[in-house]
Specification:
The complex is a heterodimer of chains A (418) and B (146).
Chain A: E1 2-6, H1 10-22, E2 27-32, H2 44-49, H3 66-69, E3 72-76, E4 80-84, E5 89-92, E6 97-99, E7 102-105, E8 109-111, E9 124-125, H4 130-139, E10 145-149, H5 153-164, E11 168-173, H6 185-197, E12 201-204, E13 208-213, E14 217-222, E15 227-229, E16 232-235, E17 239-241, E18 257-258, E19 270-272, E20 277-281, E21 286-288, H7 293-307, E22 320-325, E23 328-334, E24 342-348, E25 351-358, E26 361-368, H8 374-382, H9 406-413
Helix pairs in contact in A: 1-7
Chain B: E1 2-6, H1 16-24, H2 31-37, E2 46-50, E3 53-57, H3 66-70, E4 76-78, E5 84-86, H4 96-100, E6 107-109, E7 117-119, H5 131-135, E8 141-145
Antiparallel strand pairs in B: 1-8, 2-3, 4-5, 6-7
Classes of the chains: A alpha/beta (418), B alpha+beta (146).
């Protein structure tokens, strides 16, 4: 069997590992438009400011010999432009065709660029892959002032990093707070404070509509009419699935590639995993792209196992986030802000805890400060655990196994319940 | 596979498991040096208490470990013995393993200069019986098959 994988990041690597657990014989080919071996996307802001370099092993997701060890042929620096699902081949930019028996699409996401004038100017950057990070890093010597558009995970992180690096940063966020979908007002306030103390200027509830300059960007004009002088602009309003090559393939897409519970597309021989897909979100009970690393790993593994005939079901996922800005670490997951459902919250010294409960099932939470037990809540959301008898203890700073019933605790400790 | 099994009825909340763990993971493996002269390691097990209940809990070394799945650099991995361990040179302290750990047994060590370090039970690779099991005075921790 010849398995071709498009894309070379987390979902791809986990698919390869799953395939090789079961099958040492099939040929595996990875095609990617990037030159690098798989690397850690969350470390791109660190790469830009020089916290980490491309010669540091920390930056990479797997060791240099990963592909060789797993007998994988890599076709790097080549862009896929089309898929013929009838004749089973992948077409590259240079018209080369790579035939496959089974195909896994793990092409990831690409930056979403909102409608604004002037994005073609010099000094306008994105930050979703190594090429963009290198470009921004190279440009850093020209940047004393910078506008970051979008206060999501990438935007907040690069704002923090650049500010620490001595750049005068203005962060413009359309919503009333940064990290809008992953924090509530109280949680975001901690991050606002950290960013401000680093010298980041926050402009909330406003958006950039136009970038001005001759050759290089000089000014960002906001919808409120304000204008900000700047040497550079980083657009980080989000990512969307990279569907550039699927249009004539017959693969069903919506916002992302639609997959069933086995990570299989509407075409039997083609699977998809990671940020490019639209898989089931168990918290909102519908399919949607959730571009986060742990789910890319899980989906990649499941796609790999199912290609090997294992019949493993994806039980669904939900957003989970862990980030540190300045001195504040937080972890949040699921639905974090609603006034329609049962909400438990408490803010005390250096700590914020919030839980959203729907029909006695935990469906979301935020922990700021004291985060070490966060994964226990992750388990409860994933397993639709009945929390009616336990939820009263969620707000305790020392929340832990002591609050569970003895029988359940022992079964879990002995790994009798997964 | 053998892991540290927890017998809560036998636990007297003496914290000797934590002491033994700290010594075992110290530079010198000497109790006085570990506690008073060197950088004191963080105990990988936690004695928890809610009278009359007490127990010590540490990594269960899951078969399909969610912490490995969530790790952004491959620092969290399965070693040749099959146990889940952290490669300290790879860990960047993003705490995504903490976000994923269904047992809540991974701890934050924020004392390194640049990168934080996820700290968890490594089932004492240099020993036949884990230090906490050996130190437990009442068989509340046993090294057994699950």
């Amino acid at each position: 069997m010849k398995i071709v994988i498009i894309g070379n990041s987390v979902a791809c690597v986990n698919a390869i590992e799953a395939i090789r657990e079961k099958d040492k014989i099939s040929q595996v080919v990875v095609v990617s438009d990037e030159q690098s071996r798989a690397y850690s996307h969350p470390l791109l802001p660190n790469l830009v400011v020089g916290d980490i370099s491309r010669s540091d092993e920390r930056f990479y997701y797997r060791s240099r010999n990963f592909y060789e060890k797993n007998k994988v042929t890599t076709v790097l620096g080549k862009k896929v432009v089309g898929i013929s699902s009838q004749n089973r081949y992948v077409k590259l930019e240079n018209d080369e065709k790579i035939p496959y028996d089974k195909l896994i699409i793990t092409a990831g996401g690409k930056p979403f660029i909102p409608k604004m004038e002037g994005t073609e100017l010099e000094g306008v950057h994105t930050l979703t892959n190594i090429k963009a990070a290198d470009r921004l890093k190279k440009d850093l010597k020209n940047i004393k002032k910078c506008v970051v558009v979008g206060g999501g995970l990438i935007g907040s992180k690069i704002a923090e990093k650049l500010a620490k690096h001595g750049v005068k940063v203005t962060l413009v966020e359309l919503m009333k707070r940064v990290l809008f979908p992953v924090l509530d007002d109280t949680g975001a306030e901690y991050i606002h404070k950290e960013l401000k103390s680093l010298g980041v200027k926050l402009i909330l509830g406003d958006s950039v509509v136009k970038l001005d300059g001759d050759k290089r960007v000089k000014k960002a004009v906001l919808s409120s009419g304000k204008s900000i002088d700047t040497d550079a602009v980083i657009v980080s309003v989000g990512v969307k699935p990279n569907l550039e090559f699927t249009s004539e393939s017959g693969i069903e897409t919506n916002k992302g590639i639609i997959v069933n519970d086995y990570m299989q597309t509407n075409i039997d021989t083609i699977y998809a995993a990671g940020d490019v897909t639209e898989a089931y979100d168990i918290v909102i009970s519908q399919k949607r792209p959730i571009p986060i690393l742990p789910l890319a790993a899980r989906q990649g593994r499941i796609a790999g196992l199912n290609i090997e005939g294992e019949n493993v079901k994806y039980s669904g996922g939900f957003p989970t986030n862990s980030i540190t800005i300045g001195k504040v670490s937080f972890i949040s997951m699921g639905i974090v802000d609603t006034d329609k459902l049962e909400t438990l919250k408490i803010k005390k010294d250096g700590e914020y805890r919030k839980f959203i409960i729907d029909d006695n099932k935990l469906i979301g939470m935020i922990l700021v400060g004291n985060i070490e037990k966060a994964g226990m809540f992750n388990w409860m959301i994933q397993n639709r655990f009945d929390v009616s008898w336990l939820k009263d203890t969620f707000l305790n700073s020392d929340f832990g196994w002591q609050y569970f019933s003895k029988a359940f605790r022992i079964l879990r400790f002995d790994r009798k319940i997964k | 596979m053998k892991i540290v099994k927890i017998y809560e009825d036998s636990c007297v909340y003496c914290h000797l498991c934590e002491v033994a763990c700290i010594v075992e993971h110290s530079q010198s493996k000497d109790i006085i040096k570990a506690f008073k002269r060197e950088t004191k390691p963080i105990a990988r097990c936690s004695a928890e208490f809610n009278y009359p209940l007490s127990y010590s809990v540490m990594c269960r070394h899951c078969d399909d470990a969610p912490c490995i799945e969530a790790c952004q650099t491959g620092a969290m991995h399965r070693d040749e013995r099959g146990y889940v361990v952290v490669n300290e040179d790879k860990c960047v302290g993003c705490w995504m393993c903490i976000m994923a750990c269904p047992y809540g047994v991974i701890k934050k060590d924020e004392r390194r200069e640049v990168w934080g370090l996820s700290t968890k039970c490594d089932l004492c690779p240099d020993r036949e019986t884990p230090a906490c099991v050996e130190a437990c005075p009442n068989n509340a921790l046993m090294f057994e098959e699950v």
